[in-house]
């Protein structure tokens, strides 16, 4: 009788382990699908948004239309903050240099992603040639409360060197989510 009970428990344990493995795989797939978009897709979305915005801003619109647009934008922003976990708490922009085909603006951003706070400072160099506008990030400086985590420090240094904000925000969102999970797990065992 003891052997049969043990066998039932072992079968149940094996069944649960398989279920956990399947759920972990599904979770990984959903994370990869939701967080990785190609740079080309993002640029196409930005250009589409800019064209739409420029087309709408040329005409004079009624206050009710502007209010509806503002509410729509606030809804979109709220969705993005929930989706990525990134919330911006402050932003400032200052034009450093402006010529006919070149503009340099200095940006300062601060915010948090889940429970990690960050601050960014960078210059955005916009150059216009006939119909195209290109933008380059220079002088990127990132300050994060990463504690003593050397991997985060290395990542921040690499991002500052390459000036790739898209990679920074993608990685920050994923890292901060798992950082929060680890923190909650360790608090549970204390």
Topology:
Blueprint: H1 2-35, H2 39-58, H3 63-84, E1 86-98, E2 102-113, E3 116-129, E4 132-144, H4 150-162, H5 165-189
Describe this structure in words.
This protein is an alpha+beta fold. Helices cover 60% and strands 27% of the residues. The protein contains 5 helices and 4 strands, in the order αααββββαα. It has a 4-stranded antiparallel beta sheet with strand order 1-2-3-4. β2 and β3 form a beta hairpin. The longest helix is centred in the first third of the chain and has 34 residues, at 2-35. The two termini are 39 Å apart. The model has no long low-confidence stretch (mean pLDDT 80).
Q: What's the helix-strand series?
A: HHHEEEEHH
Give the rounded overall mean pLDDT: 80
**Helicity range of the residues?**
55-70%
Q: Main beta sheet, described? A: 4 strands, antiparallel
Tally of contiguous helical segments: 5
Strand content: 25-35%
Neighbour order of strands in the largest sheet: 1-2-3-4
Helix vs. strand class: alpha+beta
Uncertain regions: pLDDT < 50 for 5+ in a row?
A: none
Global outline:
elongated
Distance between the termini: 39 Å
Cα Rg: 23 Å
β-strand number: 4
List keywords for this structure.
single chain; 190 residues; alpha+beta; 4-stranded antiparallel β-sheet; 5 helices; 27% strand; coiled coil
Question: Care to give the gist of this entry?
Answer:
This protein has 190 residues and is of the alpha+beta class. Helix content is 60%, strand content 27%. Strand 1 and strand 2 form a beta hairpin.
